[in-house]
Specification:
mainly alpha, three-stranded antiparallel β-sheet, 7 helices
Length: 188
């Protein structure tokens, strides 16, 4: 054994002064980057559904879950998913969102009462297509409600609204049904 160690010492002294290593190094593998798309991945393209498809699907779910007519559920869903229209000021848009929250509170109780008394979409969501916030003769209930107002009664012929000061005003359905009025959720 000592002879082996002696030979090893001699070997080590001669090799230590050179660049040779006792144990040969393993080859370092280089990464290969392939610039192609896997056919399986290429064929499976995820398509984002159109906003209209999403709104329609959610409206169907809302109509069945809350038991609203589809037209009303569609108006609710569309209004929740659109951006602020260009011709509506930001402050007015916030008031509209607050009015929507009031109508949709308590599992849509107020909206169900309005639908139950045969009010039309134009009575609630109606507006002028050019000047939605300044044309009072075309405004629906949503555009007239202020954040401090409270709807206290819904009837077939009127909706009673109490203001912050305590005064009570009434909102009546449209007498002229043939007038062309835009719906708030249809504005772009």
């Amino acid at each position: 054994m000592s002879a082996f160690l002696k030979d090893f010492d001699q070997y080590w002294q001669t090799v230590a002064n050179t660049n040779k290593k006792l144990v040969p190094q393993k080859q370092i593998r280089k990464a290969v980057v392939l610039n192609y798309v896997n056919k399986e991945i290429q064929e499976l393209k995820f398509e984002v559904p159109e906003l209209e498809e999403v709104v329609e699907e959610r409206a169907c779910v809302l109509a069945s879950d809350i038991e609203l007519p589809f037209e009303w559920a569609y108006a609710v869903t569309k209004l929740r998913n659109i951006q602020k229209p260009r011709n509506i000021p930001s402050a007015s848009w916030l008031e509209i969102e607050n009015a929507c929250s009031m109508l949709y509170a308590d599992n849509f109780a107020l909206l169900k009462a309005i639908v139950g008394h045969d009010w039309s979409l134009h009575d609630i969501y109606g507006c002028s297509s050019n000047n939605p916030c300044s044309s009072f003769d075309n405004m629906g209930l949503l555009l007239l409600l202020k954040p401090t107002d409270k709807v206290i009664e819904v009837r077939k012929d009127s909706i009673k609204i109490r203001s912050k000061s305590g005064s009570i005003s009434s909102f009546y359905p449209r007498l002229e049904r043939g007038i062309k009025i835009a719906l708030l959720h249809e504005l772009l």
